[in-house]
Write a structure and sequence with these properties.
Distance between the termini: 49 Å
Radius of gyration: 25 Å
Shape: globular
Strand content: 35-45%
Helix content: 10-25%
Structural class: alpha+beta
């Protein structure tokens, strides 16, 4: 089985923030591998009790800082805007109540509540989030004390460690709130310090662990035996053994600073599609150990405008050497490119047909990586703006515009034959190029509903244009 197919299977079974009932229990789960190692340690050295003391000491430093997060968010996938409650985990990282969690835990949140170890609970606000790294920072809304300060006295917080020091076989603990059980600890080892999961994060490799990570653990800390947070639990496989993935602290630290001060990570975009020198998946191997290969460049991208071509080998950027021997090296190169100054030419040294040359590449701001959403009442569908990173196939057909995101069944859009991924071109002959234009047209159709219950919608579906007539006289919301 090709690695890409294997990774697709992993992602299909990937962990997301689960919607579960709140519980009061606390439990500790030990993976089979960890149990065997601990037992063997006890036989050979009589040190099993010492090991338990180490684990309990590390747990005591972080466990009180773990929070159970309940989120009410808006969901548009079913063709209408609905409120959905999910749960996840987080860890307090400052005495002032900053909590680190996953982007997918608080995405589109309208309400965030956090339950602490000692039973205290606080509302929270989202300070910043980044979809590309699946990280977010939220702030506990602490009460104001009589002295004017915030009521965070005695607020526990965890220290962030250095994931670069980890080795395969190191013991770790995954903490969080699986299945909505308010908190738990699972013990395991680091299975891989640099796991590459294509299509999940272009800027970071993952820590792989056999410590149990279940739905609801998202956003909780992965902790080393020193009692330091060395990762944020993000994904897991619910079948086939204990396989979980965490964002390493090497990625956390710079992202936290940007989220804290700007509310987002302002990545630069070059449009470079890279491949390693030893590309096992494509069965392509290039001579040498320095540089990274260009697989392709995105249309209308800074890289294509700079004249960079497929099979060029990038040797350095602004004088700094780059190297990607295997897939695991690619995220570091992408992160370096993502941190380049925007709108400022960068000197890229490339090797082409055996000759070295330098080109000027001017990155631009990456901007939003997901389009805005809107619910069309009475039409019984939701729409979303086309985004080149979130919807590359639709972007290839139309650079700007709006597409059908979800269709309600039964509903007027479904009865008319509209389908998800249809690009909306016109409504009653009026062009649509933005969400604002569609919103205005939608409101107009509701005002003239009694006089004009049918509207003509022109869509682009799989490259072909077609027209449908949508009858909105029927109100399915009352049925």
């Amino acid at each position: 089985m090709r690695c890409a197919r294997l990774m697709a299977g992993i992602l299909a079974a990937g962990l997301v923030a689960g919607c579960a009932q709140e519980g009061k229990t606390s439990e500790t789960h030990v993976s089979a591998g960890a149990k065997a190692i601990v037992a063997e340690m006890g036989k050979d050295t009589g040190s099993e009790q010492d090991f338990r003391q180490i684990i309990n000491g590390a747990k005591a430093k972080v466990f009180p800082a773990v929070v159970f997060i309940r989120v009410v968010r808006q969901d548009y996938t079913g063709g209408q805007k609905v409120s959905q409650e999910i749960s996840g985990s987080g860890v307090i990282i400052t005495a002032t109540g900053e909590v680190l969690t996953n982007w997918h835990v608080v995405d589109k949140a309208v309400e965030v509540r956090c339950l602490m170890y000692d039973g205290r609970f606080f509302d929270a606000s989202v300070v910043g989030s980044d979809k590309d790294t699946d990280l977010a920072v939220i702030q506990l809304k602490l009460p104001v004390e009589a002295d004017g300060g915030r009521g965070g006295k005695g607020l526990p917080f965890a220290k962030i460690g250095d994931s670069r020091k980890l080795q395969e076989g190191d013991f770790v603990m995954a903490m969080g709130a699986p299945w909505g059980l308010s908190r738990s600890v699972s013990l395991g080892i680091i299975s891989c310090t640099k796991r590459y999961l294509p299509g999940t994060s272009e800027y970071s490799v993952w820590l792989q662990t056999d410590a149990s990570i279940s739905p609801g653990n998202s956003g909780g800390p992965l902790v080393n035996t020193n009692g330091e947070v060395i990762g944020i639990n993000t994904r897991g496989i619910m079948a086939g053994g204990d396989v979980g993935f965490a964002v390493p602290s090497e990625t956390l630290v710079p992202v936290i600073e940007q989220l804290r001060h700007g509310g987002k990570v302002n990545w630069s975009w070059t449009g470079l599609q890279l491949q390693p020198l030893k590309d096992f998946n494509r069965n392509m191997y290039f001579d040498g150990t320095d540089g990274v290969m260009v697989a392709d460049t995105d249309p209308d991208s800074p890289a294509r405008r700079a004249g960079i071509q497929p099979r060029d080998r990038i040797l350095s950027v602004n004088g700094s050497a780059v190297a990607a021997l295997t897939d695991e090296d690619l995220p570091a190169v992408q992160r370096m490119l993502g941190e380049l100054p925007k709108s400022k030419p960068a000197t890229v040294e490339i090797l082409r047909s055996g000759q070295k040359t330098a080109v000027q590449l001017t990155p631009r701001e990456k901007g939003k990586v997901e389009g805005e959403e809107f619910a069309c009442k009475r039409w019984d569908c939701t729409v979303k703006t086309i985004n080149q990173f979130d919807n590359p196939d639709l972007y290839f057909q139309r650079k700007t515009g709006v597409f059908v995101f979800g269709v309600k069944y039964p509903g007027n859009a479904a009865m008319a034959g509209l389908a998800a991924q249809d690009i909306l071109l016109k409504v009653d002959g009026k062009d649509i190029s933005s969400l604002e234009e569609l919103s205005a047209i939608h409101q107009a159709t509701l005002k003239t509903l009694n006089d004009k219950p049918r509207i003509v919608v022109t869509v682009l579906r799989n490259g072909s244009m077609r027209q449908v007539v949508m009858d909105i006289s029927r109100d399915y919301s009352k049925e």
